[in-house]
Amino acid sequence: MADVLILGGTAEARAAAAALVDAGLEVISSLAGRVSAPRLPVGDVRVGGFGGPDGLRQFLQDNAIQVALDATHPFAARITGNAVSASAEAEVPYLRLARPAWSAEPGDRWTRVPDIDAAAAAVADRGGRVLLTTGRQDVAAFAGVTGAWFLVRVVETPDSELPSRHEMLRSRGPYSLDGELSLIDRHGIDLVVTKNSGGALTSAKLAAAAKRGLEVIMVDRPAEPAGIDRAATVEDAVQRVRSLL
Ligand code: NAP
What we know:
The chain has helices at residues 11-22, 52-62, 77-90, 116-126, 177-186, 204-211, 234-244; strands at 4-7, 27-31, 44-47, 67-70, 94-97, 109-113, 128-132, 148-154, 166-170, 191-195, 215-219, 230-231. It is of the alpha/beta class. The strands form two sheets. Strands 3-2-1-4-5-12 form a six-stranded parallel sheet, sandwiched between helices.
C-alpha cells in the first residue's frame, strides 16, 4: 500500500521521492531494471516491468495508489503511454513530470531529426568522428554506419550490435564544460549526436560543441499523449501530488 507510485529512472524521480518521503508520504518508486547498479531513490522500490498497461492498472489497484507520478525519461514513451491509460482505467490521478527540452542558443549548430534512425542517416551522410551519447538502447541504430568512427558514451555497455569502428567509454554524468571540451579535443570529435533529454546534468556537451563550432545531431522527443497533467519541476510536482491527496 502506498500514497504515490513514482515511475522513475531519472534524477527528477529520485528528487521527487526524497521530497515526498520527507513530507511523510508512503512512496513506491518503480524502476525498469535496465541497469545493473541503478541509483536508488529513498522509500520503497520495486524493479521490472508491470506486464503492460493491464499489469500496471492491477498494480495501482492492489497497492491502493492515490496518485501516479510519471517521472520517467522523456524518451521512455511506452511506459508513459501505459501509465496514462492504466491510471485512467484505475481512476487514479496521473501527473507527468518531465524536465523541459533543451532549446538551441545563439552559436549552436543543431540539426534536428525526428528519431534515432534519422540521426543514424544524418551521421551516415556526414561521416567523421562522432561523440554518440544517445544511450545504450539506441547504439544499435548506428551499427550499420561504416563511414564514421564513434566514441560511444554509455552508462553500461550495450549488448546489441555495435558500429564497426568505435571506442566504448563507460561513464555517468554529471559532466562539466571543461571535461567535455577536453573529451572532444582528445578524440578529435567533429560531430555530436544526442537525444533532447533536457536537464543540466548532461547539457555541457552542447556548450562544448558550440564552443568548438561542432554540429549537433539533436533527436527530438517522441510525442506524448495529449491533455495530460504536467509539471516541469520537482517542486511543482511535489506540491501538486500533495494537493491531490
Ligand atoms: P519504455 O520503452 O518506455 O518502456 C518499455 C517497457 O519497460 C515498458 O513497457 C515497461 O514494461 C518497462 N518500464 C519502463 N519504465 C519502467 C519503470 N519506471 N518501471 C517499471 N517498468 C518500466 O522505456 P525505456 O526507454 O526502455 O526506459 C526504461 C527506463 O529507463 C525508464 O524508467 C526511464 O525513465 C529510464 N531511462 C530511459 C532513458 C531513455 O533514453 N529511454 C534514459 C534514461 C533513463 P511493462 O510494459 O512490462 O510494464
